[in-house]
Records
---
Amino acid sequence: MDKKIAVKVDDLTVAYNYKPVLWDIDLKIPEGVLMAIVGPNGAGKSTLIKSILGILTPIAGSIRIYDKPYTKQRKLVAYVPQKGSVDWDFPTTALDVVLMGTYGSLGWIKRPRQKEKKAALEALEKVGMLAFKNRQISQLSGGQQQRIFLARALVQNASIYFMDEPFQGVDATTEIAIINILKELRKAGKTVVVVHHDLQTVPEYFDWVTFLNVKKIATGPVKEIFNDNNLTKTYGINYKVSIQE
Amino acid sequence: MNSAQLEIQLIAALVAIACAIPGTFLVLRKMAMISDAISHSILPGIVIGFFITHNLNSPLLIFLAAFTGVLTVFLVEYIQKTGLVKKDTAIGLVFPALFSIGVIMIAKHANDVHLDVDAVLLGEIAFAPLDRLHISGVDVGPKALWVIGSILITTLILLFLFFKELKISTFDAGLTASLGFSPVILHYGLMTVSSITTVGAFDAVGAILVVALMIAPAAAAYLITLDLKKMLVLAIIIGIGSAISGYWLAHALDASISGSITTILGLVFLLVYLFAPKKGVIAVYFREKQQRIEVSLLTFLLHLNNHNEIEERHVNHLNEHINWQKIRAKTVLNLALQNNMITIDKDIVSLTKKGVKFTTQAIDYIITNEDSKIEHMKADFFLFRG
């Protein structure tokens, strides 16, 4: 494979209270893939993303984004946390949340200006939420909140997108809208990494997959490795999915 | 109004502003109880500072006390992180321990220093104008005014510079970290400001009642607005208003000023809690009642839409068919009649054209949840006026 490696994880071990939740993970994510991370609850999927983004401190291992440490490459990376990780009663509007995506490139102290606002409005339009820009975020539905989060990542105009369960609690229309945007990102040469739960949709949505259960089980093209063998190894029970091509 | 009265009110108002700003963020971070912990545990810091400086307004004393405040937060989080106790338990363990150290220190040295627990806990703003600051022999005003004024200006500068960072780290700590703003620095920055403000305010309202000035205005503002900047401004206004009216209440009753201010704060919160336009208890009650009636109306119209049988549509049998009390059935019938959605002919209810259209569109809206479907109905009908 002579594809560029966007994200390289070596010997990553992460522990909560001295109990390892990720154990000796080696992972290469090639540039331009749309990758699902799958695994049972407690497999360390979110932990893996958070460690790559420097939100958690690993006890061992190294992480490289385009062959440099994350702290040097922040502007190349966008992050969509789990929807449930924030308080949606926070007194602010949809537009303001999207604007937060521009804070990284602004740095300390500087405020968003017209240029940032314009970018935020464009991102809102892309996710079909422009009409809701002044809506208080608690008055949005779950699917709309997820779109706002996606818009906030889009406005960062990054090369690599990490998303923690973007399809959780959204309706079918929103799910399709989101996956279409992710596919567009891939088409534009971006790398997209998604923590995903619905195994049925993996072959339809993604071209790359990583099986994770505390240890890495397998990683590679969906066509080659998304099979009952790896699923059984990951989920521990005899797994059968009917894969429609 | 003499100049002492004016000075007291000015100090109280500045304290109110200085408290409302960190208070707003504490409330949004669900850390209101931390301010209570800080307000108690700065006591040993104040006492040690006083032993060293013999001056309640010395900057060193303020920093030492603020340091114990931040230490409290650190200890609470450290104990919590062990996973052995929950956060509220950790708070309950840390601040009484630090507080009691302060109490014992005061008791041991009560004879040779002029510092008593009452003064620290309850404050005595009435005496604040007596303690003047002199610069090269010129009286420039009460010391307390200068202390709280400097703290307030620092707080305002920090708020102005780091508003964006404070907002994002309060809303989404994960994103904040991934963007390269350290949530830990912001967190402890806020804790430092809260601690310094608490120390600065103890002269005026005492270390305990300062909690009310931090939390009550922010909590009330949170119920009124959905915008962070407006919430800050409202909290400040409520704080100032309560401080000044509290002063005059104390004047009228010849009672403790800090006690009166806190009482007013409690009353203001109670009023907002009851009467806030959208989130207030009364507004919520009437909205829910309204919604109940509207849903009943829709249920009733749907029933008519689904049934052509005469017996299902007879006025006197409605309560049997949809299992409603007579009063409720009557309310709904009247409502439908008033809006020309039904006609009643010989006690048999039928839907009008308007009624049919309304029912279909409303059902459609409820199923699809698409706002565009009812856009043109909003003016005509009352159901979706929310």
---
Amino acid sequence: MDHLKLTPDKLSVDEITELVTDDRCGAVSVFIGTTRDNFEGKKVLRLEYEAYEPMALKAMKSICDEARDKWPAIHSIAIYHRLGMVPCREASVVIAVSSPHRRDSLDAVSHCIETLKASVPIWKKEVYDGDEPVWKENVECTIDSTPIPTPAPDPAPPVDKSLVQINVSCEELQQRIQNFIERKREQVNISNIHDFVPNNEADNEETETCARVRTQFVRRGDSKGHLKVHKVHNEWGPQTVAPADFYPEQHNRTGLPSSIAERVVSIENYLNIGPVSKDIYRRLKDMEDKIAYLQSVSPEYAQFWKAARDRDVKQEGAMDYAFSADDIARKIEQLEKGMM
Amino acid sequence: MEIAHDVNVKLLFFAQSKELAGTKESTIRLPNKISYSKLLNIIVESYNLQAIKNNILLAKNEEVCDEDIDIEIRERDSIAVIPPISGG
């Protein structure tokens, strides 16, 4: 249980201790704050206390809650504070805490008085013999930095672990930053040298600068040089016709007299058949076949054949041709096939 | 923009601020919403508290006011001027 009181009456330690004593508790810890009779050589006549009472009681209640949070074994807490005029030697504050074992109550009572001095709105004026009275300020008072707590105040916000505090002069700090920049520059230079200058030539006289590029040929894949070569392989077209295909060579190979060879070639050209065979008899046979074919497909040009026969020295015996009905029927059949 | 309704609040002074203000309690008209610094300035100017301006806190209805949040004030609220404390 919590016993909280602000009173102008003299505090009785016995009564307050009795409030917290319990059969189950082996420890009652008591703090008594009393008034000194001197301050910095000045004689203190008395102290005058005043409080913002509703707020002070709230703050004292939150001290109790906080203590019970930290030391759950606590049984009872009593915080009594005296107000008004307090003569020297008398108690201004009494705090008593009971718990089953002494450690909890000892720690808790210490915590309570520290927090009370820091956060409970109570003020003390020291009245001196001869000097002006002074309103005191507790060193624990957190009034300038953190607000007076109703919930438990943390003394200081925890510092972010990633932040580093450096305690040096401005010049020293500048120097360190400069050193850092130079060291980084150096590292970048070295890595540039490794990148641009191959074969560990970085040790030569040019090491002071990174502004150099030494080219190096890097083979790619299965290349044989650093030049690219484009080749076009024509599968067909005028470029692919070899000169060997022309007839002068053919005459030489067939061994015909040039006059006969020329005439044979001109007939072949006229009939639109190529010189296929080296054998002259084979070529003559091809010509005859072609003429027979032309006669069969175009009988209406018979008179040209006769005229042509005069020119065609080689084919005299082959040309006098009469068509039987069977022949005509066969040709018609052939034509129909060809048209289909 | 909200229309600022003036409200009457009770001002409480303690210890040093009580002696400087020359009174324990007073009434003041305030807009229903005001920043902490504005309120502090008004009180310091009106009650002769310049000497301890940097050492006081304001508490509304027994709760210390947050300096970063605008204070909303209603009729019959009480605002306390809290100088550095010295209990114990």
---
Amino acid sequence: MSPALAGVLQLTALAAALVLAYRPLGDYMAAVYGAPRHLRVEKVLYRCIGANPDAEMRWPAYLRGVLAFSAAGVLLLYLLQRVQGGLPLSLGFASISPDQAFNTAASFVTNTNWQSYSGEQAMGHVVQTAGLAVQNFVSAATGMAVAVALVRGFARSRTGELGNFWADLVRGTVRVLVPIAVLGALVLVACGAVQNFSGIHEVGQFMGGVQQTNGGAVASQEAIKELGTNGGGYFNANSAHPFENPNAFSNLFEIFLILVIPFALTRTFGKMVGNVKQGYAILATMAAVWLGFTALMMWSEFAHGGPALQAAGAAMEGKETRFGVGSSAIFSVATTLTSTGAVDAFHSSFTAFGGGLQLLGMMLGEIAPGGVGSGLYGMLVMAVIAVFLAGLMVGRTPEYLGKKIGTREIKLAACYLLITPTLVLGFTAASMVLPDALGSMLNTKALGAGPHGFSEVLYAFTSGANNNGSAFAGLNANTPWYNTTIGLAMLLGRFLPMVFVLALAGSLAEQQPVPETAGTLRTEKPLFAGLLVGTILIVTGLTYFPALALGPLAEGLS
Amino acid sequence: MTVPVKPEEPGTMASRSTLTPARAPHQDAPGGQQPGDGRVGGGLFDPGQLIRSLPDALRKLDPRVMVKSPVMFVVEVGSVLTTVFACTTPTDWFGWTIAAWLWLTVLFANLAEAVAEGRGKAQADTLRKAKTDTVARRLTDGAAERIPGTELRIGDLVVCEAGDIIPGDGDVVDGVASVDESAITGESAPVIRESGGDRCAVTGGTKVLSDRIVIKITTRPGETFIDRMINLVEGAARQKTPNEIALNILLASLTIIFLLAVVTLQPFAIYAGAEQPMIVLLALLVCLIPTTIGALLSAIGIAGMDRLVQRNVLAMSGRAVEAAGDVSTLLLDKTGTITLGNRQAAEFVPVRGTTEAEVADAAQLSSLADETPEGRSIVVLAKEKYGLRERHQGELTGAEWIPFTAQTRMSGVDIDGRKVRKGASGSVIAWVQERGGPVAEDARTLTDAISEAGGTPLLVALEDESGPRVLGVIHLKDVVKEGMRERFVELRRMGIKTVMITGDNPLTAKAIAEEAGVDDFLAEATPEDKMALIKREQAGGKLVAMTGDGTNDAPALAQADVGVAMNTGTSAAKEAGNMVDLDSNPTKLIEIVEIGKQLLITRGALTTFSIANDVAKYFAIIPAMFAVAYPGLDTLNIMRLSSPDSAILSAIIFNALVIVALVPLALKGVRYRPVSADRMLRRNLAVYGLGGLIAPFLGIKLIDLLLSLIPGIG
């Protein structure tokens, strides 16, 4: 079997598995977020945090919940790292420096999981399991809660109420993420991923020298790392490490975990707004972009342009022989089109166009299918923009799902749209003129790799501001400048959009729906899905074209 | 039309028919159906207007004016900066050329707006002529004193006689007069204005042609209808509409994104070892920001209002025009809108024992003395269908004519010992029974059947040697205007529900509703019913449009999202509505909706076009900027433009020229056809989306080819 055929077959199997899971999981999540009753364990949790899960919240209250909870998360995680040296089970690792601790705390609370440290050389069991893994669950649940609040904004009318943040947070964790993560961890353990609290082993190497390696609750963290589109690896090599991702099947299974919730949420959306076809249209948009990117990535990697790659006969540099080119291509698209950022191959070593696709995938705003929750709300904001343009062309004041897209709505959607480009382009531009920042590049102009070095920095900020967390590598990001700026990019790139999404939800929920007529733009039709794909590509393309031209395009076309 | 509370009997129609306005709507054929596309197309665009509007366009360069359009303000700032940079290197022809084209871009945008406004100005000038200073004769304690029209106050009584110009808006409180309203409506046929009822409103600036009326002034000087009209057509009262504001926000945020992309490009370029001249960056910025739509946005809005004015409709706000596009329920009065004003005889039905010809003959005879339109239609039907020549009253000697009156509700003739009568069934039955004649059993079944079918039955009776008896029934029908059914189908396709409002009983209303093809009807409608219907539709989130003219329509007109008052109507109605139709043609409501939709479509289409244009501009400018530093990027120069300078210039020139090229479209509006949203979207996306993607590739290449002919560039 040729590697290309193997890749296509793996993609087919993956798509089939996603299709099978789509309806049951989507319907289940709709039921979870609409359920009137609380589980016993949830009641205990509500009592612990002192929240009334039945109190309806307007958008400012909901937002306060999100921000307060996340701020507490950042603080806790920061402190945990700062005192690591004194904690038990720390494997003898020292406390983390302030700028890196801030960066890591911001990274995990924002669902980014950008890591400027090497897991096995810096983080002990307590920080990994009680700090990082916990945030893997709750940061994902926060994203889902915000998405659900926006969907309620569309579904409800003449009320400003968006549900209860604490209930959404707890339910998302207890009823959705934990059960699936447990199953996922079991599958990964069965595949051979490790799950223990063992200390550091020293292993003699064949070529001489000693390699240190440690165990840990790896399989469980791996499961939620993918399921919650987090991406922060237990080890520095992330999902390329055999303890995290032992074989080709576990690799495919991890891709499945990455994609399953973001795709299924479109079903949840359709269910909650009372028209599953609307969910299918969003699904179709996401799937079209995902499949298109995957096809392009496979083409780019299998064609392996460039003299060195041609000579080697495959673009295998930086890829695991366990997975091969096809599976690595699928993984890298899945991880950059969602906010995961886990990697099973070295992104910097992908072909220039492949690297460009990874960058572009994140620049789209990670909406195809995007992070858990954040993908759905990002896509819905793009739909609002598309509806505004297209809606005018059918001769009506634009409306989406019966809600008018007026001045207030477009203002909020436009603000949402402005945030990540500002962060990405602004910080990258600053890094291009600051000597300190330039010094971090492994591939500098002096070494004859100008565009690639630029791509590294652009990638770092794109990854941070979009809460992806994957790295192009080749850039030493553990400097005060990058730790601080990427940390800021992550925080602002996560929470500012949430402010506008929740305000939008509140504004929509207050509206009285407009009944659908033959003159209404049909947003459940393929034409609209196509229009949405076009809007996303053009808006992103126009924003980032100059930057992409000076990075991956300049490199790939030379 | 006012809303009759009771089913209309022929008699009441007769007394009403003398009151119908003396003039017909002057442009539309009944039903207003005109063939094919471009039904709501605007006036023609005259290129000479561009030159005439130049001074206005230059005046608009004032930054305080420009700042209202964020996109064009950025271009103006860019032009100033480019000019400054060009001054620093005065020998560089490239900088000067870019500066010149950037200024032209701003100027073209202002020109578009000035041309749109210019059309209104011409109209305003005509109106101003009507607003000559008048002398009013104010009545105080019965005596008339002459004061200047500007000193009139609300509540003053003024008297006007033949030849007088009416000094201000008001209601006739005494007398009746024919008035020439051509100053406002452009229609030369005089109209009747009289005290009481729904035709009492007079407008300042119009001229009394005959008789004497006393007018109670209802508006202050300077706030009269004609003043408001002048403000409206001049655009002085123009405010940005909600959708326009929303679109402006989107355009502003796109401008910020592009500003960001261009500002951050310089550090990237420095890193790449290809620092860019400021002029090139400014050129790139202007190319990217949505200048096409930014330049034309206000022209589109003004032209939309103007299209209404050309149809003799005055919208009191742009908001109302926009709302018209969103309307999903149309309330249409039956009489005058859906049906022709009057019922017409459709057939003669004999009772058992008589023939159709006998009925026709008797019906014709008895209707000769009936001057109502219904009576006329009976004579016409007898002539057309039964070949009965119309006999004139004079040629029948010894005949005693009984004319139609509202009291007897019968007409007829006594001739040669025969008495023939025709009229409302109750009256005729009473007449026959008075004379001891039998009423045929099937006469009742026939009248009932006609009533059920929505018609109005009239009975024909005869008294001769065989005694008095009922001969048969005349079936009077409402005649639906030609082309209405097709229009309602179109409206349904556009997603608009039509509701017919009528004072008829539900049976009659249902039959007419079915015949006309409206979606719903409101029978025996009172003003309260109408109001309740509007509120019910609005509670469901629908926008409602209606027309009205009577004072009792005023609350409903105010409640409706689009309320079109007829100019013939009362001032209360005109005050309550947000549009006034100077032609008083209720069918025009449909056109108003179409103009509203066209306005929104034009905005959307040009926005899409503008954004799609950017793709080609990137492919022209990015290789031009960076092909030196990274030769590989020359691959992106897919248009194979001749040189970097020429590429940037071509993009800028295209960007400026496309504004001028699209001015006619902005003024005329995008072609609109009533089809479903899906088809409309598909078409507009293909034309303006795909077209917007491809057109600049061709345009820029063409300009580049021309430029490369100039020595020193290519």
